[in-house]
Specification:
The chain is α/β, with parallel strands linked by helices. 36% of the residues lie in helices and 12% in strands. The chain is built from 19 helices and 16 strands. The chain has helices at residues 22-29, 46-52, 55-61, 107-121, 161-167, 193-201, 215-228, 239-250, 265-277, 290-296, 319-328, 341-344, 378-392, 398-408, 411-430, 449-455, 470-479, 510-516, 532-547, and strands spanning 65-68, 74-77, 148-149, 171-172, 232-236, 256-260, 281-285, 303-307, 332-336, 354-358, 372-376, 435-439, 462-467, 485-486, 496-498, 522-526. The strands form four sheets. It has a seven-stranded mixed beta sheet with strand order 5-11-10-9-8-6-7, with helices on both faces. Strand 1 (65-68) and strand 2 (74-77) form a beta hairpin. Helix 5 (161-167) runs antiparallel to helix 7, helix 7 packs parallel to helix 14 (398-408) and helix 15 runs parallel beside helix 19.
Length: 548
């Protein structure tokens, strides 16, 4: 406890507005039980109070003590706040801090000692009623040190994934809340100017601005590190902000990028259109063809970008083999792991250097908020990514981070249930008339089933299939859905379907879609948490309607 009151034993001036209350105050403050009430404290006028608490007046009337601050300078220890002694309503706010041993003849010191003793004997705090409230706040916070870990003596790395998704990264405030706290704030205050200076200099740990860091975001980032087994993480406003930050923070004019051709439409645009504008050379390869990777990486490169499984055709890339080739060429490997999630595949363990996510998908899992994440080594995150994020501002909202934290708690259950349903739906579709082909990573007819079983622990929640009749046939099937919603999102608790050629991959062009195998008859379905038999019934009814 830090507490202080007005030292009344110094009052000597005849015109002192506190003089006539000095005797009663000294008796009123001492010895009447556990709650100490300040009685009959009044100020004649705000003008008198302002005069009374001018620094020069205090210097004359109070015994001034000094101490050495954290920067080694000898400073005066003033007992009262010198910034704003009178608030907007004309009320007097006393906010002295008695950090040192009180002197025996110092009334404020004796009261502080009394309060310290009471705080040890009882669990309640002190609140002084009336318009003149003493500042009885707990000891001033030193930024992140105000938060306490929920792990107690348990090493988080010893916990299994499902437990990490619930408890990982939890930091409780002094209030001991059960749910993670939502710090919906743009900025933070400092105890003094020296702490602000030291914070910006990096010599003390303290939050500065929520564009740089935020306690709620920090909890999310720590939890993602635990489930990905990554050293460090930064979150962003969207998944595409994560991809963009990972690439642009690492690259410069004259660098070279090699990317798998099977990328999400916006990722493809960054590589094919945006990076060349900055003088960065780019080259696409067939991600499933290891010989093309060998040829492209036979000369120096700076970055490799790929998805595995890819969107929407679920193409697999041999991550360890490509990582070895990339590292030999001097490149880092960035993997978009959104389809697999960290539950089914962990690219960092397979040789990747950086992993990016759209947290909007399975991590939220309920279509509520946007978010992204970049994970990698602590050195790369701090030296390369953090300066870019700090100065360009792709910051995640604290509210979105809080929602994502709650979504992660159930992600293992959702991904497992949706994955089992997706495998059953894929088998169902393969038997339906009018369906020409089905793609699902762990099905025997997938051309890279062996690689999928080697790198992943499950096939995922996405099923892609092709119907006869091209665009018209696909639209007729989708318009026949009654349960499955038409949406370009995925990873939701509701089943969603989209037509990639006219939505997510429209802008890459017809020729590039043909190279990727995205025909006009292809439909991508993100399987949700509905009963799998209901999903089958809806698909079957829509396919029968198309044939009719």
């Amino acid at each position: 406890w830090e507490a202080a009151v007005l030292p009344l034993n110094y009052t000597r001036a005849p015109d002192d507005p506190f003089r006539r209350f000095s005797h009663s105050m000294q008796f009123g403050l001492f010895g009447l039980g556990d709650l100490i009430w300040v009685r009959r404290l009044a100020v004649a006028t705000s003008r008198d109070a302002a005069r009374l608490f001018r620094p020069a007046y205090l210097d004359r009337k109070l015994r001034v003590r000094t101490r050495t601050d954290h920067l080694g300078r000898h400073r005066r220890l003033a007992p009262f706040s010198r910034g704003k002694p009178i608030d907007a309503a004309g009320s007097l706010v006393l906010s002295a801090k008695c950090r040192e041993r009180p002197g025996p003849r110092d009334l404020s010191g004796r009261i502080a000692a009394r309060l310290n003793k009471r705080a040890k004997e009882a669990s309640f705090g002190f609140r002084f009623p009336g318009p003149w409230l003493l500042d009885g706040r707990p000891t001033a916070s030193k930024g992140p040190r105000r938060m306490t870990s929920d792990t107690r003596k348990i090493d988080p790395s010893s916990l299994r994934t499902a437990t990490r998704l619930v408890h990982g990264g939890v930091q409780r405030s002094q209030h001991g809340e059960t749910a993670e706290a939502l710090f919906l704030t743009s900025g933070y205050v400092y105890d003094d100017a020296e702490q602000a200076e030291a914070t910006f200099a990096g010599t003390v740990e303290h939050y500065q601005y929520s564009r740089f860091a935020n306690p709620t975001l920090a909890m999310l980032e720590q939890r993602l590190c635990l489930i990905e087994d990554a050293e460090d993480c930064r979150t962003t406003a969207t998944g595409m902000a994560a991809v963009n930050a990972a690439l642009l923070s690492h690259l410069k004019t004259g660098d070279r990028v090699v990317a798998a051709r099977a990328l999400f439409g916006s990722c493809h645009w960054i590589v094919s259109t945006l990076l060349p504008k900055f003088g960065i050379e780019t080259e696409f390869v067939d991600g499933a063809d290891l010989e093309q990777w060998k040829q492209a990486l036979s000369r120096p490169a700076n970055l490799v970008l790929l998805e595995s499984p890819s969107n929407p055709m679920l193409e697999m890339v041999d991550l360890p083999a490509v990582a070895d080739l990339a590292h030999a060429a001097g490149a880092i490997v960035v993997v978009d792991n959104v389809f697999a999630t960290p539950l089914l595949q962990q690219p960092l363990k397979l040789g990747a250097d950086v992993v990016v996510y759209s947290c909007t998908k399975h991590m939220d899992g309920q279509g509520r908020v946007l978010g992204g994440a970049v994970l990698g080594s602590k050195k790369w995150i701090n030296d390369t990514l953090q300066p870019f994020i700090r100065n360009t501002g792709p910051a995640l909202s604290a509210f979105n981070a809080w929602v994502l934290l709650k979504g992660l708690e159930t992600m293992a259950l959702r991904v497992d249930a949706a994955g089992r349903s997706a495998a059953a739906v894929a088998d169902f579709l393969a038997e339906q008339p009018g369906v020409t082909r089905v793609w699902y990573p762990t099905r025997p007819d997938h051309p890279q089933q062996a690689l999928a079983l080697k790198q992943m622990t499950g096939g995922g929640t996405i099923v892609t299939f092709e119907v006869a009749g091209g665009k018209d046939g696909a639209f007729q099937v989708m318009n026949g859905f009654r349960l499955i919603a038409i949406s370009n999102n995925l990873g939701d608790s509701k089943s969603l379907a989209t037509h990639p050629a006219t939505t997510t991959h429209m802008r890459i062009g017809e020729d590039e879609r043909a190279r990727l195998g995205i025909t006009d008859g292809v439909i991508r379905v993100s399987i949700g948490l509905e009963d799998v038999e209901d999903i089958k019934d809806d698909l079957g009814a829509a396919l029968r309607c198309r044939l009719a």
